[in-house]
Write a structure and sequence with these properties.
The structure holds two protein chains of two kinds.
Chain A: H1 5-10, E1 16-26, E2 31-42, E3 47-51, H2 58-65, E4 73-78, E5 81-82, H3 88-94, E6 98-101, H4 115-127, H5 131-144, H6 150-153, H7 163-175, E7 181-185, H8 193-210, E8 213-218, H9 221-227, E9 230-235, E10 238-244, H10 245-250, H11 255-263, H12 267-270, H13 294-299, H14 320-324, E11 330-331, E12 335-337
Parallel strand pairs in A: 3-8, 3-9, 6-7, 7-8
Antiparallel strand pairs in A: 1-2, 1-4, 4-5, 9-10, 10-12, 11-12
Chain B: E1 2-11, E2 19-29, E3 34-38, H1 45-52, E4 61-69, E5 72-73, H2 79-85, E6 90-93, H3 107-117, H4 123-136, H5 153-164, E7 171-175, H6 183-200, E8 203-208, H7 211-217, E9 220-225, E10 228-234, H8 235-240, H9 245-251, H10 292-296, E11 302-303, E12 308-309, H11 312-317
Parallel strand pairs in B: 3-8, 3-9, 6-7, 7-8
Antiparallel strand pairs in B: 1-2, 1-4, 4-5, 9-10, 10-12, 11-12
Helix pairs in contact in B: 4-5, 5-6
The chains are: A alpha/beta, B alpha/beta.
Chain lengths: 344, 323
């Protein structure tokens, strides 16, 4: 199972493949389907955006990809790693190849450790460098993520850094063991807009330079378009639309993807309300009209017995079929949608 | 009508380095105006909102200037006078406000507490009023009997907004009311808020870091940077072209996600340290249009035909520098 260290680190070839991944959480009161037969791949060097709202299952998916959680059904592989079957001793090795960047740079760093210590640790733990080598390497990584001048930053602690600098440090720590894949869970949503572009650009540069792939988890289609190559739209644990990002955004088919796109604040559009409604008419959608009770449906759990389309309760296009059976993903290689009423 | 005149807020720290979070702010909100206030973290926008509502602990800070609500100065008021005025004339909704409900009280009780404290009528009238408010925020009046934990985040924030309107205030301050919510819920709440404001004609101070959202929601917008209002204008004027280089830079961070070409930019550098004295314009280090005058002289608020701006590019145009 263990891969050849040398080839693994020099050029990256590992493909992340999720096949029919289902995750069910059970407790005495209820059974919750967090993910329902999710299938997609992240090719080496690609950035795939996973887009959805709270409760859509995106974080559960991240936990499965990083091996924190095991899927109930289906398989997850990264290169030769069978992620869903790893034992805890293997997990420790696996984590060298998959690293995470979290949303909150204020709580994901150890406040006691300096910048240098934070980056040195994964280098020693995962790459087994000695202290001297690790320090040299860490300084180089600081240059890469532009925590410069390095001598000024090396001995600072997290509280002495700004939000953007902290997130750079989190990224530095993640790329230190030279991973195959980075799972970035809302890496910019807590930062000011003025520094978001910078951080996204950094992630983009890093993948070009190192050939790593990125699973970019976000609720923001705008930033997804700025960085990702492909997008997977998740609703209540179901992939409702998927494909090339430009294609999906310019020809969004699923009513949910369209709703997400229209919800992005867009002051320029206000004066010329041409946003196509879900039914295809010209008027702008009235979000205020969505009855608030639908928020319960939105956040409510999906039960094991539910057989219809997960979006049926909120959908304007709903028809008999939608309540009877789940639609499946259909379409072309670059764009697929899961809807009874819409096709690519 | 709310008028803020030369408002300063200085946080005192133990190490003797005080931080001026609000530095000489002047503006007014005419009755029935939906005013937006936008700025990056640490620019002092929340402090300004809190200062207006007098929610700051005066032992830890110095506050000077005046906040006039219909001619009465809130800064000079005693806490007794303030207590009468809150909810009744001025109400506030906070970002985490949806989590600040008393967890052991039903939604109904949260409302009646406020109404009783302000001597509001008979029990039946109260119930009717609460049910009406819940309908206004598009919630089922049956939720009166629910406990806060039974509601979703978006529903709780709707209740918080309804609660702020319970005594028909003249001014509602909303500090990042939708930041913790999903985009679709955010959109729904902002549209609802606009409708309520048009219908009930209160004025709004909507504070957010999200310029795109503020531009969509508000009629007028104020842009704050390093404790000062650097630009204030009706939204449509700003959309035609920002005047202050900071506003311009901030605007370029947003764009139409479905536009053919995506422009996605940031602003290099970071805001100044407000614990240190500043010379000249606070935006100089990040400004692409800085001139020598900007480093020496702090630009003053300059009233324009339909707004105001504090930037030397405009004082110069008007022959203002050196006068």
């Amino acid at each position: 199972m263990k891969l050849d260290e040398q080839t693994f680190s020099s050029h990256k070839t590992a493909m992340l493949t999720l096949k029919e991944v289902t995750k069910v959480f059970k407790n005495r009161a209820r059974t919750t389907v967090a993910l329902h037969r999710v299938t997609f791949t992240v090719a080496p060097g690609r950035i795939v955006a996973l887009v959805g709202e709270s409760g859509s299952g995106k974080t559960t998916l991240a936990r499965i990809v990083t091996g924190i959680e095991k899927p109930t059904e289906g398989s997850v592989t990264l290169g030769e790693w069978q992620v869903d079957r790893l034992r805890s001793s293997q997990l420790r090795v696996y984590r060298r190849y998959v690293q995470m960047v979290f949303q909150d740079p204020f709580s994901s760093l150890n406040p006691h450790n300096t910048v240098l210590q934070t980056i040195v640790r994964p280098l020693m733990n995962h790459l087994h460098l000695n202290v001297k080598q690790a320090r040299l390497q860490a300084l180089e990584i600081m240059n890469t993520v532009r925590l410069t001048p390095t001598d000024q930053f090396a001995h600072k602690k997290p509280h002495q850094l700004s939000g953007g600098q902290r997130q750079r440090l989190v990224i530095a720590r993640a790329i230190a063991p030279n991973p195959e894949l980075i799972v970035a869970d809302e890496p910019v949503s807590m930062l000011d807009v003025s520094i978001r572009a910078d951080i996204l650009e950094l992630i983009d540069q890093l993948r070009k330079r190192t050939g790593m792939s990125v699973l970019y988890i976000t609720h923001d289609l705008y930033s997804a378009r700025a960085m990702a190559d492909e997008v997977v739209v998740l609703y209540k644990g179901h992939v409702v639309e998927r494909g090339n990002i430009e294609e999906v955004i310019s020809h969004a088919q699923h009513p949910y993807t369209q709703l997400l796109l229209q919800a992005i604040p867009n002051p320029w559009k206000k004066r010329q309300p041409t946003a196509h409604r879900v039914d295809g008419s010209e008027s702008a959608p009235h979000f205020a009209e969505i009855p608030a009770k639908d928020e319960i449906t939105l956040y409510g759990r999906l039960h094991a017995g539910d057989k219809g389309c997960p979006f049926a309760a909120r959908c304007e296009l709903v028809s008999g079929e939608c309540l009877q059976a789940k639609p499946s993903l259909k379409g072309t290689e670059v764009h697929q949608v899961s809807c009874w009423n819409r096709q690519v | 009508m709310l008028e803020v005149k030369d408002l300063w807020v200085k946080y005192r720290s133990q190490h003797g380095r005080s931080v001026s979070a609000v530095r000489g702010v002047n503006f007014s909100i005419p009755d029935g105006t939906f005013m937006g206030l936008v700025g990056e973290s640490g620019c002092g926008k929340s402090t300004l909102g809190f200062a207006i509502a007098r929610l700051l602990n005066s032992q830890q800070l110095e506050i000077s200037g005046s906040v006039l609500l219909n001619g009465e100065d809130l800064i000079k008021m005693s806490s007794r006078e303030l207590r009468k005025l809150r909810w009744d004339k001025i109400a506030i909704v906070l970002q985490g406000g949806m989590n600040a409900f008393n967890p052991v009280l039903k939604i109904k009780q949260q409302f009646t507490d406020v109404m009783k404290a302000h001597g509001q009528g008979r029990a039946e009238d109260r119930d009717q009023r609460i049910a009406e408010l819940l309908r206004h925020v598009q919630l089922d009046p049956a939720l009166l009997e629910a406990y806060p934990h039974e509601l979703s985040g978006g529903m709780k924030q709707r209740v918080a907004i309804a609660l702020s309107l319970v005594l028909n205030p003249e001014l509602v301050i909303l500090d990042e009311p939708t930041t913790a919510l999903d985009v679709i819920v955010q959109k729904a709440i902002v549209e609802m808020l606009q409708e309520l404001q048009r219908h009930m004609k209160f004025s709004v101070l909507f504070i957010s870091h999200d310029l795109g959202l503020v531009l969509e929601a508000a009629e007028r917008v104020m842009v704050m940077y390093a404790g000062k209002i650097v630009e204030e204008e009706p939204v449509e004027v700003l959309l035609e072209g920002a005047k202050h280089p900071y506003t311009e830079a901030l605007l370029s961070c947003y764009g139409d996600p479905q536009a053919k070409e995506l422009r996605f930019k940031g602003i290099p550098g970071s805001p100044p340290d407000l614990s240190k004295p500043l010379q000249g314009c606070s935006f100089v280090p990040r400004c692409s249009k800085a001139m020598s005058a900007c480093r020496e002289l702090e630009p003053q608020r300059l009233e324009l035909e339909r707004g105001a701006v504090a930037c030397h590019l405009y004082t110069k145009m008007q022959g203002g520098i050196g006068k």
